[in-house]
Amino acid sequence: MIGIISAMQEEIQALLNHLKNKETVCKGMRTYFYGSLFNQEVVLVFSRWGKVASATTITQLINDFDVNEIIFTGVAGSIQDYINIGDIIIGKNLYQYDMDASPLIPPLEIPLLEKTFFESNLDKRKLLEKATQHFLSNLDEFIQTNDIKKFNINTPKVYIEDIASGDQFISNKKQIQLITNRLPNIACVEMEGAAVAQVCYEYKIPFSIFRTISDKANDNKHIEIQKFANKIASNYALGILKKYFEMI
Q1: Kind of pairing, strands 186-190 and 69-78?
Q2: Boundaries of every domain in the chain
Q3: Is residue 136 predicted with pLDDT exceeding 80?
Q4: Cα separations in angstroms, 33 against 3, 25, 91, 243
Q5: Model confidence, pTM
């Protein structure tokens, strides 16, 4: 069984709409949806925002369901000029940019684990890249033309890059500068992925993460995150995972 997790239900709503033989169980204020998705047994859950919420959810998911793989999906903010709205980042190394227990240990290092990042599974990362490339070549099958125009998506691309997580919404250049001073190669920022990665590492469960870029993190304009998640990111997840499940 594959566990699929997002921070908001809007990010996986399209998957829920296609889930067959759906059953639910509620634990810890979370609803876990399980059934069959494109002939693959899955359990889906949205964790709510932040590292604590996502770590709590993924721990429950691993302990209560017989999962052998975890996939995290959802939206993120770009902090690199070449990464644009509608692009897809497949995470390689996941960092907690706000972890700092210095001077006891170096900044970014996770206490007791002696690690500054957690790497996603290489083989699954490669399969996700192929599935994403296939999805992008058939984008109009999953995303309406009007929505592509509405959210200013123009020739979206896929990248395998590092991702940073922290418990704040990044929306200005000062915040970005603080992150890139320590982690200059980070492609995008969000609030959950590295926490999920740490739990999966400790439980020895392979994990993958892919994020749809919803905004430029240094742009202070009002962002309709939930509408973007529902109309764009959710259908990105549907198209990518449909192909990914065919390939595995």
Answers
A1: antiparallel
A2: 2-247
A3: yes
A4: 10, 7, 25, 21
A5: 0.95
